[in-house]
Fold this sequence. Notes:
This protein is an alpha/beta fold and 261 residues long. The protein has two domains: 1-87 and 180-190 and 211-261, P-loop containing nucleotide triphosphate hydrolases (Rossmann fold, 3-Layer(aba) Sandwich), CATH 3.40.50.300; 95-177, 3-Layer(aba) Sandwich (Rossmann fold). Helix content is 38%, strand content 24%. The chain is built from ten helices and ten strands. The strands form two sheets. The chain has a six-stranded mixed beta sheet with strand order 6-7-8-3-9-10, with helices on both faces. A four-stranded antiparallel beta sheet has the order 2-1-4-5, covered by helices on one side. The two termini are 28 Å apart.
Amino acid sequence: MAVLNDNQAYHLEVDHLTMGFGGVVALQDVSLKVRQGEIYSIIGPNGAGKTTLFNCISGIYRPQAGSIRFRGRELIGVKPHKISQSGIARAFQNIALFQGMTVLENLMAARGHLQKYGLLTAAVFLGRCKKEEALSRDRVEDIIELLDLQRVRHMPVGALPYGLQKRVELGRALAMDPQIILVDEPVSGMNLEEREDMARYLLDIHESMSLTVMIIEHDMGLVMDLSDTVTVLNFGIKIAEGKPGDIYANPEVITAYLGQA
């Protein structure tokens, strides 16, 4: 875990966020502050509003009230692709990869917004285009090595088992060179060995890339082992925030999960 202090800058600030769908309030007056370089987990029962929160941060949803600031810049009203270009990447719970493309091609495609050359330069593949493609390829190869994807780099993603596809989904987000990565249910549907591997990859990513990592997860063991800070949502309301040990022993959190303290 990261060693944090109160003087560290907040990387992401969510203030009094409210998001509703018709008569259903998915998030109600939710506030949180994520320090730069920490692993910040969001937990809660199904329907608690966790993915809705990520969708608001990503620009997919526009909340009815509140503020979301990344490095001091307001994100509400900013288009999703502009938010991703600003340094916030997302690995989705439901895999969002190009199934007919190889692992390498999927990761290279994620870097399209980082390429600064024009169509003519790309057509002749000289100068700046050639240099930037080489830099992107080197970056992608580093990610492939970090996530142990070397043996499947030239395989179509659709031919890979689910656990490997989840790893490629994570790699696709990393290929965007983010400052914050939002990881939605990274170990859902995995067996024990795959879950342990994913936990190790998340730690490696956090340490080697100095990323701020936000995680939504139901696996309490993974959350408690990895997180610096944990926030708990229940029916769209934040009911607890703190260190993993404090959250684990919180009676209100136990009641939300089990129905009784």
